[in-house]
Design goal:
With 216 residues, this protein is of the alpha+beta class. It has six helices and 13 strands. A hairpin with a 2-residue loop joins β5 and β6.
Length: 216
């Protein structure tokens, strides 16, 4: 992979009716930060996460979205979508985020990150953009961006290369996981091959395949 980070983005705390948190606050509106930004196991230092039940945590410590996919949406909607408008911490260029393999490791700056899962769109995202059918359209597009866990804490900045240090042989991609969960159930068996996926997703695949009676 020959790509780079073009922007590291941190939240501007927003109070809005569409915010999913009971507090009415959201951190989905992110803006480029100056200089180097620290990433820790539990997230990006200086970022704000309102709905801790659904966002953040070790398996969702960092969210990356490709500028190429953002440009597609800008053309589709006829509006500018600068870095951070997808709620992403890392805006990338030249990185196949949708095609990233679950469990592959990215060296960025002094940090080492690992791809864990796709992003699931929500009504907060639709409200932020003011596009009522965005969840449906985002699901159909199936370019969801990738969450990453932090294997080695460090600092990242705009301009840092994204170097793939390891890529699992199973080949299950971010895009495949998203499509399996939302559009193409025939792909569900593939999810069981990706042991680096969060266990909650693997258990969901087992339930849908009838391989477990766990009611969760």
């Amino acid at each position: 992979m020959t790509g780079k980070v073009i922007s590291v983005n941190l939240a501007v705390v927003t109070e809005a009716e569409w915010a999913g948190d009971a507090s009415g606050l959201s951190g989905i509106d992110k803006r480029p930060a100056a200089g180097r930004v620290a990433v820790r196991v539990d997230g990006v230092v200086g970022d704000f996460i309102a709905e801790r039940a659904h966002h953040g945590g070790p398996d969702q410590a960092v969210y990356a979205y490709a500028t190429e996919d953002a440009d597609w949406w800008a053309a589709e909607l006829g509006r500018a979508l600068p870095p951070g408008r997808f709620g992403e911490n890392l805006s990338t260029l030249g990185v196949d985020v949708t095609g990233a393999v679950i469990g592959e490791q990215w060296a960025i700056g002094s940090a080492l990150l690992q791809v864990t899962k796709p992003r699931t769109p929500c009504r907060t995202f639709a409200g932020f953009w003011g596009v009522p059918d965005l969840v449906k359209r985002f699901t159909a597009r199936a370019a969801p961006g990738a969450y990453l866990r932090v294997l080695r804490e460090g600092e990242v900045a705009a301009g840092d290369p994204v170097e793939v240090r390891d890529r699992p042989a199973h080949g299950v991609t971010v895009g495949e996981v998203f499509r399996a969960l939302n559009r193409e159930p025939e792909l569900l068996p593939r999810l069981l091959e990706a042991t680096e996926l969060p266990e909650a997703i693997r258990e969901k695949a087992r339930r849908r395949l009838g391989l477990t009676t766990d009611p969760r």
